[in-house]
Amino acid sequence: xxxxxxxxxxxxxxxxxxxxxxxxxxxxxxxxxxxxxxxxxxxxxxxxxxxxxxxxxxxxxxxxxxxxxxxxxxxxxxxxxxxxxxxxxxxxxxxxxxxxxxxxxxxxxxxxxxxxxxxxxxxx
Length: 124
Hints:
There is one protein chain. The model has no long low-confidence stretch (mean pLDDT about 90). Helices cover about 25% and strands about 30% of the residues. Helix 1 runs antiparallel to helix 3. It starts with a strand and ends in a 25-residue tail after the last strand. It has one domain (about 1-110): Alpha-Beta Plaits (2-Layer Sandwich), CATH 3.30.70.100. It is an alpha+beta fold. The longest helix has 16 residues, at about 15-30. A hairpin with a 2-residue loop joins strand 5 (about 90-95) and strand 6 (about 95-100). A four-stranded antiparallel β-sheet has the order 2-3-1-4. The protein has helices spanning about 15-30, 60-65, 70-80; strands at about 1-10, 35-40, 50-55, 80-85, 90-95, 95-100. It is globular, with a radius of gyration of 17 Å.
């Protein structure tokens, strides 16, 4: 599972931003199932930053986002940017690509949490 968040940070806010980013990375990587975090700064656009965090699974991602200190520090930090979570469908090392089976249900986009036991009426 990948958490990717892009940020636009004015030069005057860089020190504050990097301090918050480092604290967020520290908190997330201390969580079980968090494999690593990367903070990147654009070489072409000085105000553009990206945070990428890898988790072992969707469950590890959800659990990592649950502790109080993460909700207190990381969630507000991520809200400064545009965050999205992605399922890893392929990875590569040394030129070898490995495909992964999706764990997202084929009807995930059509079912709400309240439909856990099945929708009361079929959707079109």
